[in-house]
Amino acid sequence: MAQYMLNEMLKAQYELDCSIYKSEEEYLDNRSENFDSLRLALIVEVGELLNERPDIFKFWKKTYCVNKAKELEELADVWHFALSILNSKHRVFNDESVSLEKDILAYGIPDPKEYALQLVEYVSNDYEYYDDIIYHVHYLTLALGYTFHDVYQEYFRKNAINHKRQQEGY
Prior knowledge:
Layout: H1 2-20, H2 24-30, H3 35-51, H4 54-57, H5 68-88, H6 100-107, H7 112-124, H8 133-143, H9 148-167
Helix pairs in contact: 1-2, 1-5, 1-9, 3-5, 3-7, 5-8, 5-9, 6-8, 7-8
């Protein structure tokens, strides 16, 4: 099931990316040129996500309120850019995704800060392929207490908003 859902997200992201470029042909012609911008955008989204969870890194702040809906929305934005990165590198995801949640849960849930740092470090490096990006984003998702199903639902809610924004000239 996770494999099917992930492939649906990749397809939906491909359609959104094409709409941003106004056509599939334009997207295919330009997707590698904007790759570094996608990497930076993902890093920014991780920062926005963490700002929704000051308890993760703002040790100096004694009071805070976590807005779980906003946190999940920011996490969906992280997924949008991770999927765009995969699409821009002409990659598809393999069957190993099915066991992602089982693998991480077998070791216990780590500190989300650790996975946020690993994701930013991974995206900051210049690899030929970024196949493991989904693992990094998924581990961060689980460390924050969300399931892939949570992300799947929020991803498509936010994807609809992003399509509407493009239609309105965002």
